[in-house]
Amino acid sequence: MKLATFNEGRVGVVEGDHLTELEVGADPHSGVSPMRHLIGSATFRPGQPRRGRSYPLSTVTLGAPVPDPSKVMAAPVNYRSHQEEMNEAVQVSGLGLFLKAPSSVTGPGGQVVLPYSDRRFDFEAELAAVIGSTARHVPVSDALDHVFGYTALLDVTMRGGEDRSTRKSFETFTPMGPWLVTADEFGSPDDADLACFVNGDRRQAANTRDLIWSVAELVSYASSITTLHPGDVIATGTPAGVGAIRDGDTVDVELGGVGGLLRITVTDEGAVPSRTTGKDRGPVPPLDPARA
Ligand code: MN
Fold it and tell me: Who is most buried in 98, 101, 144, 232, counting CB within 10 A?
């Protein structure tokens, strides 16, 4: 089942080139999005919520599938190919996870807004797991039982020596979508093709079988740090091929099993000089082949 958030927070199921609204019965005053309500509903079964009106997909505005996760946890350096290109001495097993601000989430078709005029910003295409049920100290063997579904995610990143939580939490720096695919339909998260295109040129191509820590290991580990709640997002890391994005760029992420592109555009409108001094510190990214 492909589940989308559309038209300011409504929930629908995507079938081919149509989207049918689901009446999920969320309380509009709860402060929780209808999608999070649906994911957290113990009674949810695929096909069960009453169906409402149907729309051609091209006529709706999609949002991030989960617009309001309680947290976004992410794996640094979780493909060896990316570890090598970044000249990183350590990988996920030495770094643990980091947090991206939930307010950095944005939807497909949106704009990534680069905040600074004097810093490099990179695309990082990733598989993201969306948590389906509360998880705390879950063993690896049970971890995937707590995953509701999967979606494509861009972990937009400022390069440099500042803390990861700063470099990756700017507003609009976590595009997700175009929808999520429930775990039953997605298949194994350990064998999903992932690709990223900048202005139509393929810049990243990988398969999640090359993850250093698998999705199950990441979910289990995350649940050993803190309680995972329905709708929480775990970004699993990016493969080799990262590069800079600039004003006017279009970035597409294609994740096998999702059946649609996560597309965003980039703007630097309003960018100002950075207020911190990390520009020449931190992991050294590869030269940008398209712009060198
Ligand atoms: Mn990343």
Answer: 232
